[in-house]
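User: Sequence for GlsB/YeaQ/YmgE family stress response membrane protein below. C-alpha coordinates please.
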Amino acid sequence: MGIGIIGAIIVGGLAGWIASMIMNTNTGIFANIGLGIVGAVLLNLILGLFGIYAANAWIPQLIVGLVGACLLIWAWRAISARS
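Assistant: C-alpha coordinates for GlsB/YeaQ/YmgE family stress response membrane protein:
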Protein backbone atom coordinates (compact mmCIF):
# COMPACT_ATOMS: atom_id res chain seq x y z
CA MET A 1 0.00 0.00 0.00
CA GLY A 2 1.49 3.32 -1.09
CA ILE A 3 1.19 6.74 0.47
CA GLY A 4 -1.41 7.95 -2.03
CA ILE A 5 -1.78 11.19 -3.97
CA ILE A 6 -2.41 13.44 -0.95
CA GLY A 7 0.46 11.80 0.91
CA ALA A 8 2.76 12.27 -2.08
CA ILE A 9 1.89 15.97 -2.21
CA ILE A 10 2.50 16.39 1.52
CA VAL A 11 5.75 14.42 1.48
CA GLY A 12 6.86 16.16 -1.74
CA GLY A 13 6.17 19.59 -0.27
CA LEU A 14 8.04 18.75 2.92
CA ALA A 15 10.98 17.25 1.03
CA GLY A 16 11.14 20.23 -1.33
CA TRP A 17 10.95 22.69 1.55
CA ILE A 18 13.77 20.96 3.44
CA ALA A 19 15.84 20.74 0.24
CA SER A 20 15.33 24.45 -0.46
CA MET A 21 16.57 25.23 3.06
CA ILE A 22 19.59 22.91 2.71
CA MET A 23 20.48 24.22 -0.75
CA ASN A 24 19.71 27.84 0.25
CA THR A 25 17.16 28.59 -2.46
CA ASN A 26 14.18 30.90 -2.27
CA THR A 27 11.40 28.86 -3.88
CA GLY A 28 7.68 29.04 -3.24
CA ILE A 29 5.34 26.36 -1.94
CA PHE A 30 4.39 25.07 -5.40
CA ALA A 31 8.02 24.86 -6.51
CA ASN A 32 8.84 23.01 -3.28
CA ILE A 33 6.06 20.49 -3.90
CA GLY A 34 7.19 20.06 -7.50
CA LEU A 35 10.85 19.65 -6.54
CA GLY A 36 10.00 17.08 -3.90
CA ILE A 37 7.66 15.02 -6.09
CA VAL A 38 9.80 15.15 -9.23
CA GLY A 39 12.94 14.51 -7.17
CA ALA A 40 11.35 11.47 -5.53
CA VAL A 41 10.11 10.07 -8.84
CA LEU A 42 13.46 10.54 -10.59
CA LEU A 43 15.53 9.16 -7.74
CA ASN A 44 13.16 6.19 -7.34
CA LEU A 45 13.62 5.46 -11.06
CA ILE A 46 17.41 5.74 -10.80
CA LEU A 47 17.54 3.58 -7.68
CA GLY A 48 15.23 1.05 -9.34
CA LEU A 49 17.79 0.61 -12.13
CA PHE A 50 20.20 -0.63 -9.45
CA GLY A 51 17.61 -2.87 -7.82
CA ILE A 52 17.10 -0.58 -4.82
CA TYR A 53 13.51 0.19 -3.91
CA ALA A 54 12.39 2.63 -1.22
CA ALA A 55 9.50 1.40 0.89
CA ASN A 56 6.10 2.90 0.16
CA ALA A 57 6.01 4.64 3.51
CA TRP A 58 6.33 8.27 4.59
CA ILE A 59 9.89 8.33 5.96
CA PRO A 60 11.68 6.45 3.11
CA GLN A 61 9.84 8.51 0.49
CA LEU A 62 10.65 11.71 2.38
CA ILE A 63 14.35 10.81 2.34
CA VAL A 64 14.28 9.87 -1.35
CA GLY A 65 12.33 13.05 -2.18
CA LEU A 66 14.75 15.18 -0.17
CA VAL A 67 17.84 13.73 -1.84
CA GLY A 68 16.17 13.88 -5.26
CA ALA A 69 15.14 17.52 -4.78
CA CYS A 70 18.66 18.45 -3.68
CA LEU A 71 20.05 16.75 -6.79
CA LEU A 72 17.57 18.63 -8.98
CA ILE A 73 18.56 21.97 -7.42
CA TRP A 74 22.24 21.12 -7.83
CA ALA A 75 21.75 20.10 -11.47
CA TRP A 76 19.76 23.28 -12.22
CA ARG A 77 22.52 25.40 -10.72
CA ALA A 78 25.20 23.54 -12.68
CA ILE A 79 23.33 23.95 -15.96
CA SER A 80 22.41 27.61 -15.41
CA ALA A 81 25.97 28.47 -14.35
CA ARG A 82 27.26 27.36 -17.76
CA SER A 83 24.95 29.74 -19.64
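The mean pLDDT is 86.
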